[in-house]
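Re: your question from the hallway

Yes, I did run it. Sequences:
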Amino acid sequence: MREPTFFVLASLADGRKHGYGIIKDAEELSDGRVRLKVGTLYAALERLTAEGLVEAAGDEVVDGRARRYFVLTDSGTASLAAEAERQALNAARARARLTQRAAKSAVTTPKAATA
Amino acid sequence: MREPTFFVLASLADGRKHGYGIIKDAEELSDGRVRLKVGTLYAALERLTAEGLVEAAGDEVVDGRARRYFVLTDSGTASLAAEAERQALNAARARARLTQRAAKSAVTTPKAATA
DNA sequence: CGATATATATCGACGGTCGTACTATGGTCG
DNA sequence: CGACCATAGTACGACCGTCGATATATATCG
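Structure:
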């Protein structure tokens, strides 16, 4: 799963949201790092709906603007959870190797004694 | 960064390796989950070399078979570290939301009292 | 001798994302 | 009042990393 898709699900994990709301929420949730493009978002919502991870949850007109709402399905919740586990594990594995590497290079390339 | 690319870097974080060795190592490192395709691997190695994250580290012939070795550059090490941080953070954020969601649904949909 | 593992190269196809352009309404500022 | 920005959604061509398949070559095992 790619990052934009991941944040669409993560955003909807918070509850019922409409497209533009997801964009804003994802940006906040990622500390400004992930700015979903409209094309990416609606393509993802269609795809995720077809896959059953997301469901349409009503169209409303607020302040004269049409909104399409969506919610996470149980399947979507499970997918997000699995993906989060996977990423956490991957990150942990990579970190472990990087720590080892740093320790090794500290021995191989001693710049200044820690004493 | 996509998962295959991430594991190519993570594998090389362990030290100098050749293509096929990376495939085997990535599979092990990911508990069998990530099986790099040869096309993906060599394309990634070329790309990463062009980007300066990876460097060619000598061709050798072992048991009559040609091997192309690669190592991580400092830039590659930094990229991998940054990517691991990012994924760990994303996963943590998603988990937090899922926990909240579970707590909320437990109140909304009480199945059996915990008492 | 045929099958499997090692080792690399190449290439068309696919799919998710990006970038851009477009339509439309409401609110703010000069 | 007109210009501009935020909100809200639609549409589409292009890009790029990955996949799947095919190919070549050597060593080993049965």
